[in-house]
């Protein structure tokens, strides 16, 4: 590519910086929102988000949960202990390998969490209803790419930490 094509207009550069700023704001507010939810549930934020993974993924082993979250297996064991004690999950034998244990979300636990998200889900639906199908496809693609980028960055940090150990 030529240098001229590589140049970004000041307007585009400003818009890109605004996007980065708003994404940081969104991330911070999401963390704080989930902290409030966690407090309501009597959990810490990590336990709450691990429970969210379990509710989305269904039964998984502790090792799979560690892989999904990027936490160590030791940390995941502690999370599972706390979630089990709070009544949100149970440990059960893996139907495919009786030597392993799977962690299953308790349906009643999920049911007690859902009402806490009703308002924000309704507000989100109101926002997305303002966009066309084509615009939503673009936004969805952007969000998916951001999610993948975040996972890649998490893995980079984890690999750097492992190399330093």
Automatic annotation (TrEMBL):
InterPro entries tied to this protein? ArsR-like_HTH, HTH_MarR-typ, MarR/SlyA-like, WH-like_DNA-bd_sf, WH_DNA-bd_sf
HTH marR-type domain boundaries:
9-148
Q: Which domain of life is it from?
A: Bacteria
Alphabetical UniProt keywords: DNA-binding
**Name of the protein in its database record:** HTH-type transcriptional regulator YcgE
Q: What is the lineage of its organism?
A: Bacteria, Bacillati, Bacillota, Bacilli, Bacillales
Q: Does the keyword DNA-binding apply?
A: yes
Listed transmembrane segments: none
Q: What is the protein's species of origin?
A: Paenibacillus cineris
| Hydrolase found in the keyword field | no
